[in-house]
Specification:
two-stranded antiparallel ribbon, 5 helices, 4 strands
Length: 128
């Protein structure tokens, strides 16, 4: 199938599909004319890429993890034992980032709360 059809079937813009190829995540065949041709299995690959991106992984990490992740019963499942530790490290990285964002929000909440009413008459306290 050509890139337009893969885009339609996955809901992923052609520009992103080209980017995935540039990052080594997709490997379409090339016709003599230069057109990209994708296999039916590339639909599943694109969907795995999208799920891993949604999980907070960058494309460099996805390139390493992608060959070792399959979809079973609607879930991503590692099939290579060596990537489980890598995934745990990525989870810790995300947890640290969440902690830093929470601390930043709390600092901003304190600064906003300290503002005199005259400076922020319409400011409502935002929920945590």
């Amino acid at each position: 199938m050509r890139i337009g059809e893969l885009s339609r079937r996955t809901g992923v813009h052609e520009r992103l599909l080209r980017y995935y190829e540039k990052q080594g995540l997709l490997w379409p065949e090339r016709a003599a004319s230069g057109y990209r041709y994708y296999q039916e299995s590339d639909i599943d690959t694109v969907m795995r890429i999208r799920r891993l991106l949604s999980a907070g992984l960058n494309t460099e990490t996805i390139a390493q993890v992608l060959p070792c992740v399959r979809v079973k019963a609607g879930n991503l499942v590692p099939v290579c034992p060596e990537i489980v530790d890598d995934l745990r490290q990525q989870r810790e990285r995300i947890s640290r980032a969440i902690g830093e964002l929470v601390a930043s929000r709390e600092l901003l909440d304190a600064v906003i709360a300290a503002a005199p009413r005259a400076l922020s008459p319409g400011l409502a306290q935002s929920p945590a």
